[in-house]
Amino acid sequence: DIQMTQSPSSLSASVGDRVTITCRASQGIRNDLGWYQQKPGKAPKRLIYAASSLQSGVPSRFGGSGSGTEFTLTISSLQPEDFATYYCLQHNSFPYTFGQGTKLEIK
Amino acid sequence: QVQLVQSGAEVKKPGASVKVSCKASGYTFTYYYMHWVRQAPGQGLEWLGRVNPNSGATDYAQKFQGRVTLTSDTSISTAYMEVSSLRSDDTAVYYCATQDFGSPDYWGQGALVTVSS
């Protein structure tokens, strides 16, 4: 199975900050990666697909980059509604695997 | 608009089976894979498998092979996930989600399955 190592596991930041979350794959996955946001009690919401393509309706402050084994999700200027847990998901090979999540909290 | 509506919460005893449904609307059901993902209380997301509603073909995470069965009924645009031989660590919220651009896109609201004696 491909292991997705996500870091950091938690992050405290302030409104207006720029934050970066990283996912590292245990083997190359091309750009077969998505980023998801999850708020408590809600289903995940996809933000980014194909590593760097912004999901329709998602604010442009969210951005994704990377290919192969290293991927990043960047939020350019944090807004109050962005405090949530974020997950990466590789869909290059079965079983699809998620990163362990990054909980983004208000400082 | 795409909607996935899942069946309600279930409480089951260890060793029993549970079947969760996911009714799709707003798109052509047979065009997109349906994925199933679960989340144990306070834990991360875990991919279980996917079904092709058009052909019935399935892909499972090895961990769940033989214990999870994914099916679909195109006549009513509904996908199903059945888990057998339930254990306490199967307690989780189970989500269905359609695939677009290779990964799960639209998600159901989730169905809580509690396994307790």
SSE string of chain B:
EEEEEEEEEEE
Q: For the report, how would you describe the main beta sheet of chain A?
A: 7 strands, mixed
Low-confidence stretches of chain B: none
Beta-strand content of chain B: over 45%
Average pLDDT for all residues of chain B: 97
Q: Indicate the mean pLDDT of chain A.
A: 97
Approximately how much helix is present in the residues of chain B?
under 10%
Assembly category = heterodimer
Secondary-structure class of chain B: mainly beta
The amount of helix of chain A comes to under 10%
Uncertain segments of chain A are none
Number of DSSP E strands of chain A? 11
Discrete helix count of chain A:
0
Q: What separation lies between the terminal Cα atoms of chain A? A: 36 Å
The percent range for strand residues of chain A is: over 45%
The geometry of chain B reads as globular
The largest sheet of chain B, given as strand count, sense and whether it forms a barrel, is:
7 strands, mixed
Return Rg of chain A in Å: 13 Å
According to DSSP, the number of beta strands of chain B is: 11
User: What is the gyration radius of chain B calculated from CA atoms?
Assistant: 13 Å
Order of helices and strands of chain A: EEEEEEEEEEE
Describe the structure.
The complex is a heterodimer of chains A (107) and B (117). Chain A is built from no helices and 11 strands. With 107 residues, chain A is mainly beta. In chain A, strand 7 (62-67) and strand 8 (70-75) form a beta hairpin. The mean pLDDT of chain A is 97. Chain B has 117 residues and is mostly beta strands. Chain B is 0% helix and 53% strand. Chain B has no helices and 11 strands. In chain B, the strands form 2 sheets. In chain B, strands 2, 4, 5, 6, 9, 10 and 11 form a 7-stranded mixed beta sheet that branches. Chain B has a 4-stranded antiparallel beta sheet with strand order 1-3-8-7, with no helix packed on it. Chain B is globular, with a radius of gyration of 13 Å. The mean pLDDT of chain B is 97. Classes of the chains: A mainly beta (107), B mainly beta (117).
